[in-house]
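Forum > Structural Biology > Help requests

Title: Can anyone predict the 3D structure of Fatty acid oxidation complex subunit alpha?

Hi all, first post here. I have the sequence for Fatty acid oxidation complex subunit alpha but no way to get a structure on my laptop. I'd be grateful if someone could post the structure tokens.
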Amino acid sequence: MSMEKTFKLTRREDGIAILTMDVPGETMNTLKEQFGPEITEILAEIKADSSIKGLVVTSGKADSFVAGADITMLAACKSEADAKALSQQGHVVFSKLEGLSIPVVAAINGACLGGGLELALACHLRVCSDDKKTMLGVPEVQLGLLPGGGGTQRLPRLVGIATALDMMLTGKQIRPKQALKMGLVNDVVPNSILVETAVELAKKGKQAAKPVKQSKINQFLESSSFTRDIMFDQARKQVMKKTQGNYPAPAKIIDCVRQGMNKGMVQGLEVEATHFANLVMSKESAALRSLFFATTEMKKETGAEGAVPRKVKKVMVLGGGLMGGGIASVTTTKAKIPARVKDISEQGLSNALSYAYKLLDKGVKRRHMTPIARDNIMSLMTTTTEYTGIKDADIVVEAVFEDLALKHQMVKDVERECGEHTIFASNTSSLPIGQIAAAASRPENVIGLHYFSPVEKMPLVEVIAHKTTSPETIATTVAFARKQGKTPIVVQDGAGFYVNRILALYMNEAAQLLLEGQRIEHLDRALVKFGFPVGPMTLLDEVGIDVGAKISPILEKELGERFKAPAAFDKLLGDDRKGRKNGKGFYQYGPKAKKAKLVDESVYKVLDILIASDKESKDVAERCTIQMLNEAVRCLEEGIIASARDGDIGAIFGIGFPPFLGGPFRYIDTLGAKNLVDTLHGYQSLYGERFAPCETLVKMASDGSQFYNS
Ligand SMILES: C[C@H](O)CC(=O)SCCNC(=O)CCNC(=O)[C@H](O)C(C)(C)COP(=O)(O)OP(=O)(O)OC[C@H]1O[C@@H](n2cnc3c(N)ncnc32)[C@H](O)[C@@H]1OP(=O)(O)O
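Reply #1:
Sure, ran it for you. Structure tokens for Fatty acid oxidation complex subunit alpha below:
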């Protein structure tokens, strides 16, 4: 362990001392084991020094305050007792800080999250910079945890119960302006005068806390334990509906606040430490923490070892449809790279422009963005019906119809009209990239870049290298996707790549259950209960039944019999059911549809279905998900994905596989390969070969091995 210290105390001539936190050897400040003892020592020194009249707490890192407790330290806890001790140690030092008789002001620039915000809350006042990196929040819930450094107690006392619950249950990050408005900070200033402003505040002395600004209704609700209990019950109900009981943290957060507000801070902190410890040791938090570690690790990977990404300064998007519009939008809005959209029709072009404009304008309406900033970003997006102004494009992303001949034409056009180095990235969801590259004279520049709809919301992209894609093309495409705010996984070429391939079998199984007489809403509910964001029938309506019908035979042809879709697509399309897009699918749409989504019962007749009694929810969920698990392992076996980690990230970020399970591979480790293989064999004898376990699983079942070591 380093002998360097985390804290530095500087005494100024005016009597204000600056306490600077700077964890040695790390890019970001986090609360580590040495935090407690070190700050305790310093606080004693400050207390004993009567020349110190005020204290400013700040960070020595250029662009972060404190990003919270060190998650690695939490993950290393061996027992609830370990974790509880950590939380209680935090309580003790934070209350010492709060108990200082001199004024204590936090000066915040950059991320101030979790335990970092809890540190700031223990100060008497807070000033933050107006930098765009400055974000305040308690994201613990996203790690399956709760704020365990007094946050569940100090936050509601500062900003009110309703606001605090919202922050803790969503984990959302608050920007400076909003933080000021809600009373989370006392002032917002440019970073250049941050510390000076904090010093001036400290000189003014401790001030009585201003009453929280909040609505009349919340004032009323928070005024007595009786009305507060109504609020807590309401919050609990909402949370149970949202989490389906799969995540233990939210209910525990509510309980901490309830007990703390009704029985006082001491009791509240005791409950907080107990619940925190319990959550640290939960399997849900372990899975969510592994996601955090996986995504931070992936941020550093180039996608092709040794290759250096080329700088992308200009992008062209072919096709102004839903996908093309979305891709152009994240290119200009997130990556801030000029994008030129080409479509054969003016209509397509105006669609793409209005797609981007609407998203930006939402930001203006919510006051996250000025109209000028919106217009500046819009000016990065230009349109054309000809190949003009694209000679210097570094990447062309193609999002036209799924038609191989058309894609070949695009490849040829781009090779003719653009530069030698221009990358041709196809957003195809089903055609193998190698087949598209077959028409290229520079196949090393051809790659797949598969987005998910809606592009601005779905965090994943698949980057697909075919056999001769160059490492530089891979690295450039990966870096480009990351600039668009995406998490890229590099996968190998093959029908359906990874995500759609595992999704297809899961969807087919749901369709099979439907044909066996299981009700549509029952199927959807069973999988939502399991932890998916929407059920398979809703998903098919959203994606488009016609789209599913188009992809299905390609997968069957390339990957085999097990991909054969149940005979339903023809009948559905024969009845003109495409899903939400044409207002006709499994559910009712349009002006007559009720707010609560209702099944369009006439679909049962179209499919000649006799409704049977509901199977157990968990059996329905198992039968569908087990197909996904088996196929995910097959993708690893075939080298389609490079690692179990990539497979887990792909399924969670691309499909919404339940995050608390950690992804298909981590879930298989939890279930045990032997157990899974036995279950697959059971289904195989009932329903046939599509349930035959893949080789790797059979091997793992016999030798007891796992995908992960921990
Ligand atoms: C008791 C308390 O209530 C419990 C807690 O506080 S739990 C922790 C709550 N805090 C969080 O969840 C925040 C986690 N961090 C983040 O979301 C992001 O890192 C961030 C938004 C702060 C910055 O993102 P970004 O600029 O992309 O940097 P990113 O690459 O993620 O992180 C930089 C480094 O800091 C590390 N880091 C950031 N936060 C960390 C944390 N809380 N614990 C451990 N390491 C952390 C990353 O692992 C990475 O390390 P490396 O460079 O050695 O690989």
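The chain is about 50% helix and 10% strand. The chain has three domains: 7-281, 315-495, 500-703.
Shout if anything looks off.
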